Amino acid sequence: MVEEIKEDPTFCYLNISGQVFKTRHRTLAQFPDTLLGSEEKEKYYDKSRDMFCFQRDRQSFDSILYYYQSGGVLKKPPNVNETVFNMEVVFFKIKTHLCSNGT
Fold first, then answer.
1. Running DSSP on this structure, what letter comes out for residue 88?
2. DSSP summary character for residue 22
3. What is the rounded CA–CA span in Å between residue 21 and residue 36?
4. Strand 11-16 relative to strand 51-54: parallel, antiparallel, unpaired?
């Protein structure tokens, strides 16, 4: 059954340091100037696992993915160091630097 789900071209899978996230391609495509919204993400695609693989901070990625799902709301998780979070924002090429601390 999992294989059937993974064959659905509507969704893509993002492996962030071993944790797999599922989202729609169109959700990411809303922000074409970011890493995940552009074709640039293709260099991180692992064909054997049928997913995009990144060795990045998992705790920050919840907020990075929420940025796409919410239409652009970026909030730093309270348990993530500000420097680490900002490095993730830069890596994923999110231009918004206005973020709250999530509290």
1. H
2. E
3. 13
4. parallel
